[in-house]
Structures are given as C-alpha cells and as structure tokens.
Specification:
Number of helices: 10
Distance between the termini: 21 Å
Radius of gyration: 26 Å
Largest sheet: 6 strands, mixed
C-alpha cells in the first residue's frame, strides 16, 4: 500500500513525524501468573511439537516424498572501499543489538542481575501473553500495547512505518529502528524528524543528528520540585570548559565519570558559603556542582532549534498530523 502511495506521488519524504498511542488489550489482570511457569510449559510444548515434526519428516523421507531444498546464498556485499574490519564490526554490532522491527516489537528480556526488572519480567497473562502493564493517567493499571507510527509530512499524511509493541516498550525505545526502516525502505531523504519529549533520549538525538537530520524534539524541562537555580541557569563557556553561576562564580571542571559519561563541575565551597543565594542554590558546604554530558553539544544544538520558526512550525504541525490518525 505504501509503495503504491509513493508511486502516486502522495509521499513527500522531507519530514517525518513519529508518535505512539496506548491500546487496551482484551485481557484482565486476573489472568496474570508467574512467567517462569508459562515459559516452562511453552518450552515443553515446543519441544514436543519439534519432536513430532522430526518424526514426520523422517517418515516423509522414508517414503521418498522429501524435496531437496537449496541452501540460501549469502548476499553479495557492495563495494564501498571500506576495510574488511568495518564489515566485521558492523556484523558483530548488529548481531548483538535488539532490532525492534525484526522482533515484531517484543521486549528484550535479559536475565541479568544488574538489569532493571519490570513487572512483566515476572508476570505474564495466560489470555494475552504479549500484553503488559499499561498505566493511564488518573486511571487504573490495565494490560495493553502501544502502537508506534512514522507519518510522512506530506499533505496525504501517509503512514510509512508502524509497529505494535507491549505497553512496557516506551515511545523512544524503537524510534531509531522505525526511522531507519522508513528512510531506507522507501529511499527517502528526510531533513527533520519531529516528535514529543518522550523521544528526547540522547541516543536518539545523536543518531538522528549524525544522520544529517534535524531532531525537532522538546527537551525535558528542569525539575519543578527543585527550589532555586537549575542547571539551565548556569552558562557554559566551551573555550575555558567552565560554568558560571547566576552570581558570577566560576565552576571549574573536577572529574569525568566514565560510567555515566558525565563531566562534573564545582564551585569553591568558601565562595558558595558566603553567597547570599546559597539557600536557593545548594545545601552542600562543598560548593554547588553541575554535571554535563560528554555529548552535551547535541543537546545544545537541539536547544538552538527551539527558537527557530522551522521548529515552531513542526511542533504545531505535529499536533494535527499524527494524533488524528490515532483517533
């Protein structure tokens, strides 16, 4: 259908809009049971079916009914002039990543002690095993899904890519796979990707910007629970690699945290303790500190878009381009 729309000239291809909406499943919370019991039952069931299938194929071969199947041949790599190690690194990276499109939206359930565990990692519905917990604002927790859409910015609003995933798969998780599939499957050269704050993860922004597209996404606002100065009130000087607080105190670079990939900056404690704004800034006697991501320049670039007319137009357009399709 999408291919026919492209042939008819209905797809513009210069703007992509992405969003997701919740869909309630036909399954009740009373159907939830421990996942290990269901997984064990399914493994036994598949093992039995596989054994029966092997016996059937053996019988067919004995009757001479088995047909010879030609093995699949590996695709021929296009010559790009890149060294062989590049292909090997790409192949290794692709074999270890979770491809949301190829997995049909299913969640990656990695059983490791340091991985965050979700309720759905322990519980599964016997009525609808793919549905997971779905939280609605002001409502009770149900079981459901999220449908993810990539919509063309042309007047026809053609849906270029869609994915149904369990409700626990947040909007931003499959964003890159959806955008890449829409871009390469239909040979498009979009100039911008527009989405809401749920898609503002740094990994998404970096990937989109590095691909030569503008990431038109709102960034999370400062924590409203914090009383006083937020990090946005501090100005950063890239030449000296320092921050300056609203009172003019310089926060020098202290150290880099390789685990969180952030750089820490801190003001002198004696200056902060004598500052009249200390109560509004920090309770620490060691001085106010701020953290900056090593890739903060991407966020600075996106913040720079927010005052442009192109960004404002894309945000206005998003509200009437995608959500009516959900309705």
């Amino acid at each position: 259908i999408t291919e026919r729309c492209i042939e008819a000239g209905l797809v513009w291809g210069e703007e992509l809009y992405i969003d997701a909406t919740k869909v309630e499943a036909n399954a009740a919370r009373a159907s939830l049971v421990p996942r290990f019991a269901v997984d064990s039952h399914l493994r036994d069931l598949f093992k039995k079916e596989d054994t029966e299938g092997n016996e059937s194929r053996t019988a067919d071969q004995a009757d001479g009914q088995d047909q010879k199947v030609e093995p699949d041949t590996a695709p021929t790599l296009l010559s790009t002039g890149a060294p062989e190690t590049v292909y090997e690194e790409l192949a290794t990276a692709n074999s270890t990543r979770h491809d949301w499109i190829e997995e049909a939206g299913k969640q990656e359930r990695v059983q490791k002690h340091h991985v965050y565990k979700r309720h759905a990692d322990y519980l599964v519905s016997t009525t609808d095993p793919d549905a997971t917990f779905m939280h609605r604002p002001g409502g009770s927790t149900r079981l459901g899904y999220q449908t993810h859409y990539v919509v063309d910015g042309g007047k026809a609003r053609i849906v270029l890519q869609a994915l149904v995933a369990p409700a626990e798969v947040t909007e931003g998780q499959p964003m890159r796979d959806l955008v890449w599939r829409a871009k390469f499957r239909w040979k498009l050269q979009p100039k911008q990707v527009t989405a809401d704050t749920a898609y503002s993860a740094l990994d998404n922004i970096i990937a989109i910007e590095d691909a030569g597209m503008h990431a038109y996404v709102p960034l999370p606002s400062p924590d409203s629970r914090r009383i006083g100065f937020s990090q946005q009130d501090f100005s950063y000087d890239p030449d000296s690699d320092t921050y300056t607080c609203p009172q003019g105190t310089v926060l020098a670079r202290r150290h880099k945290d390789t685990h969180s990939q952030t750089v820490h900056y801190q003001a002198p404690g004696d200056i902060c303790n004598a500052c009249p704004c200390k109560a509004r800034c920090t309770p620490s006697d060691a001085g106010r500190s701020v953290q900056r991501s090593v890739d903060e320049q991407y966020l600075d670039r996106v913040r720079g878009y927010h005052d442009t007319e192109g960004y404002k137009k894309a945000m206005r357009k998003r509200g009437v381009w995608v959500e009516p399709l959900f309705a």
